[in-house]
Amino acid sequence: MARTSRARVKIIQMMKDLGNLTTADIFDYLNDRSSPYSMRHGVTTNSLNNVLGKEQVFVKLVDHTSEEAPQMVGIKGDRYRISMWGLNATLLRQYPELEDQGTNSWKLLAES
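User: That's the sequence. What structure does it adopt?
Assistant: Structure tokens below.
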């Protein structure tokens, strides 16, 4: 069971409960030990971006290059834009086993 599979399942659960989220919100929920969606050792921004970008169950609703993208304020006070993510509900209804940690999503979607 790979760490990315656990992250995929946690993010799916999180988005089902909370709706569409920004990359920063997802990162915070996965790394916050008091969150019901936390992962034992957390997640890095690189692995989170790989999961969100490569898993077909996640859809980028607003790109960080868009004018409508949510803005964050950095430590130094500079502003930057972040992406907004949602679930591909059609794909999730078609393949409910994507919510299982033991499922290899690449094999599952390649077979169809």
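Residues 3-18 form the longest helix (16 residues).
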